[in-house]
Structure formats: structure tokens, C-alpha cells
Amino acid sequence: MLKGIYLTLMIGPAVPVPVPQAVLDALTSIEINLNDIERSAFQLTFTLSTRSPLHTLFLLSGGSPIPLMRVIIMVTLNGTPNVLMDGVMTHHQVAPGSAAGHATLTITGEDLTAVMNQQEFTGLPYPALPAEGRVAFIIAKYAFLGMVPMIIPSVLIDVPIPTNRIPAHRGTDLEYIKELADKVGYVFYIEPGPVPGMNIAYWGPQIKVGAPQPALNINMDAHTNVESLNFTFDNQSRGLPTVIIYDEITKALIPVPIPDITPLNPPLGLIPPIPLNIRPVHGVAKYSPPKAVLIGMAKAAKWADAVQGEGSLDLLRYGRILKARQLVGVRGAGAAFDGLYYVSRVTHNIKRGEYKQSFSLVRNGLISTIPRVMP
Questions:
Q1: Does 295 score more than 50 pLDDT?
Q2: DSSP state of 370
Q3: Domain ranges, residue 285
Q4: Residues 67 and 105 in one domain
Q5: pLDDT value at position 364?
């Protein structure tokens, strides 16, 4: 690895351990794709001798003898450990190399949501448990993977009375948790870290506030720390979020426009795009007006990001690891695109002597809402 950057690779069933030096020597590249609300994935590429025992080791680990082979990838930058991925192997591929006697072994995997999506528990009852309690009960089953729940109670807490109805599980654990999150406008994802073997299972609103990461600089000569950064403004996809409420007295359907700006989704752009059409929020007509509006506000916040940015950076120039699900500043892109952005995706590309990241940024308007972006 590069000076000041150290890679730690841990592999093992349930409780991974650091791999031997022979495995690290055979490792040629790592790609980790981290998304804000979707599942994250990784890919490890090894160049091995055709007679290497590592072939047997990895292929057996992906078969029936050990169904759960866990992988932890950690990078230590200037003494600070960063857990980039905690997941499981899902696929192996061996391809003959161009050089005689060598082959390429490619291992792909997903984060720990893959474990939650393997077994169906349809019909399992949850008497007198609100959605938050059901989520906590499900996550508790994965405590052996170091999964710690972080559950934000919804203002729409509904405790079902057992004499009226008993909620039942539908599908896999992952499918049911996401169904419960979607009903109240929440998201669910698993954040690796902060220490190896520990994971935060987050169930709550998508948060776009907090302290920003160091700024991404473009067109600033010696201060430039990104290799490329391009922005697009898509005004055509912007619509006016509308909730359809059913009035029991008049039996009429009443459309109610709702804002897509909330305390958890503040305006990062001073000039929002003009809505060109009406976008109804489906599935809320059966709820009471306050509940329907609250769900609609949470869902509409996901539609407001008309400004998107795509770029790449070299870790040595940037000086730290850019993280998804956080804010970051942009400088040097011009008055329309400077300011704060939400990092929706980060891809780590690690090779021997090279560490680069590609990323996606989003925000809900043009022109910065802050007078100055801090370095």
C-alpha cells in the first residue's frame, strides 16, 4: 500500500480473522461500492498460481460446508482505522491468466443485508408490537454478527391491539424491515464499524445534516484535490409532491401539495427547480390526513435532488477517505454549483500503490446556501 495507508483483510466464518501474508501478496485489487440506502457490494481480485492451495480454501468457503464466509476490509489512514466493508462472500470465479501457470480468482460479495435476505419467516406473528419493536426483534437475531440496532421511533407509532389484529411477518427479514420503513418514509441500511466486527443497523429517516467533510476542490491550481468533477441539472424530473386524502364525509379525493423540505432534508441549494408536473404519493389515501402528510413529506424528500455530481479523487491529494451518507463541500465549480452536497455513493478502487475513489453527489437546488465553503 501507499505510505501512511495500511490495508487489513479479515476472512472467516462468522468471526473473521486476519488473512495470512500469502493471501495479501496474491491480492491485486479491491473494489468497494457503498450506497446511501441500497445494499453495498465488494470485489476482491487475486492472482494465484494454478497449484496454489488458496483456490481450494476460497472455493470451499463459498460452498455448503461453510455457508457464511464473512469478509472485513479495513484501511488505516495516518493511524486512524476505517472499516470500509463488512459483508459475506456470494460468488467466486476463476479465470485462466495470460501467463502460464497463473490464474485470476475473483470474489464478489455484499454487505450483511445479504444474510438477512436468505431465509423467509412469512407468518411469524408480532402481537402488540409496533413497527419499531418488530425491527428491534429482527435485528436482535443477528447480534452474533456484531449488529447493533439504531432505531429512530416514528411519530406515527401504532401499537396494534391483539384483539383487533396481530401483525405478521412477510418475506425475508430484509424485505419486511424495508416494508416497515417504507410505510413511514424511513430507510434501512447497515453501516460497518466503527471497529472491526461491529455494525450499525440503522432504521430511521434519511438524514442530510451534520458536519461536512473537507471540501472537494476543482479548478484551484495547487489546491485542486479531485481528478474530475462534473455536474448536471435535471429540471425535468422535478415534480410537485401531492398526497391524495380521502374525505369520509364528502366521499371526495382531495389532493394536498406538500413540501419536500424538512428539518432532516434542509435546502442545500438556494434556488430549487420549478416543479413541472404533479407527482402523487401513492399508498397513503387510507391514512388520516396528518399521517398521510408526514409520510408524503418523507417520501417527497427523495425526489427533490435535481442537481447531481459525478467525480473521482486520489486519496493522497484529498488527505482522507470520503464517506457516503454525509455532507461535503465543493469549491471552484462556479457560483451555481459551489456549496454543500450530500454524498449518495462512493466507490473505493484499491490497487498496489494506488488508492482512488469515485463518488456521486446530490442536492436540491442551485447556488450555495452558505456564504463560504470551508476547506
A1: yes
A2: S
A3: 240-301
A4: yes
A5: 86
Q: What is the pLDDT of residues 247-263, one digit of tens each?
A: 777 777 778 887 767 67
- Backbone CA torsion sign across 90, 95, 98, 104: positive
Q: Per-residue pLDDT tens for 49-63?
A: 766 666 666 655 544
What average pLDDT does this structure show over 216-232? Answer: 92
Count CA atoms within 13 Å of residue 79 on its CB side.
0
302 vs 229, residue with greater confidence: 229
φ, ψ at 296 (rounded to 5°)? -65, -40
Q: Measure the N-to-C terminal CA separation of the chain; round to a whole number of Å.
A: 27
Residue 326 amino acid letter? Q
Buried b (16+ CB within 10 A) or exposed e, 49-79: eeebebbeebeebbeeeeebbbbbbbbebee
d(CA 297, CA 63) in angstroms, rounded, equals 45
Q: Does 170 fall in a domain? A: yes
Contact predicate 295/341, CB 8 Å: no
375 is a domain residue? no
217, 333: one domain: yes
* Structural domain count of the chain: 4
Closest CA to 357 of 11, 21, 31: 31
Residues present in the chain in total? 375
Beta bridge partners of 230: 310
Beta bridge partners of 223: none
